[in-house]
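Researcher: Structure for this, please.
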Amino acid sequence: MRFEQGKVNQLFQQRKLMRNWSGFRPKENHRGLIMGTALLADAAGIFIVGMTLQIELRVATVVGDCLMTFSIFQRMGSHRQRIYQLEVCPRDKLSHNGVPAIYGPHEHMPNEEVYAVSETSVDCDNWQGSFSWFLSRTNIESFVLEQPC
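Model: Predicted structure, token format:
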């Protein structure tokens, strides 16, 4: 799905707040994943219609094998579209099969653009650094969230 660039720019510039955090729970349709969601509100605390934040983590069975996804979705009619996603995984793991292929953490931007993330704090061993970078990148007010596992 293509998004109007002006609206995308406005969305990323607008300060947002996380509200109604669900807490982490096992994902019903996928063993080994936990997920939490929140609604997003503007700076005045008014909910942004159809916009949600989702954090999904794979509970690693092998040390150092992580997968963390931090996403923003927008409901458009009956479909939920990904607006932005930060995917954190080991730096030596092929994580995106596009051209060029990407190893390690990367971000999905609106309009299907994908970029490698070289920020050192975005790493499997740094939950808080990865979460903080996501909040900063998407202009969401800082929110303390305990590392789930």
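Researcher: Any notable elements?
Model: The two ends are 34 Å apart (CA to CA). The chain has one domain: 5-105+113-138.
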